[in-house]
Backbone:
């Protein structure tokens, strides 16, 4: 083996070994103690990447396609709006008077604590009252899936 090959091989080996600890230190080990937070963060990230819903609501204006579900057990008679929000600044959500039509707000913290509101209401969300910096908000509104005008 020539000196050039030995030096090249040594250089390649040194780079491959040096890169491993940096990669390992960037990852977070998921344990029984942090699984709920890790799974909720993973789900929030998935919604943000798939629907571009960080800091804003995305509105589904058609009945849910039960043959192509993102969420298990979604309802066909419900229109969904959802988003992931950073609570470094408070977020205020207003549910309007819908004239008797069912509408609810589901609030999911990073620790998967879930609360909900129903009816005309206004709620200001903060890290203190949600319990985490990021929150997933889902609004469900009843609609007749067999009536395109509804």
Residues:
């Amino acid at each position: 083996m020539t000196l050039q090959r030995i030096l090249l091989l040594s250089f390649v080996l040194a780079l491959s070994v040096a890169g491993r600890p940096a990669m390992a230190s960037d990852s977070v080990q998921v344990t029984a103690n942090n699984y709920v937070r890790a799974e909720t963060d993973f789900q929030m990230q998935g919604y943000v990447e798939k629907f571009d819903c960080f800091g804003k609501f995305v509105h589904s204006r058609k009945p849910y396609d039960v043959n192509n579900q993102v969420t298990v057990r979604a309802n066909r008679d419900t229109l969904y709006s959802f988003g992931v929000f950073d609570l470094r600044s408070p977020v205020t959500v207003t549910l309007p008077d819908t004239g008797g039509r069912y509408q609810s707000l589901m609030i999911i913290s990073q620790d998967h604590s879930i609360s909900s509101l129903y009816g005309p209401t206004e709620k200001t969300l903060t890290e203190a009252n949600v319990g985490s910096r990021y929150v997933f908000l889902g609004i469900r509104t009843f609609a007749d899936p067999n009536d395109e005008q509804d």
Summary: DSSP finds three helices and seven strands in the chain.
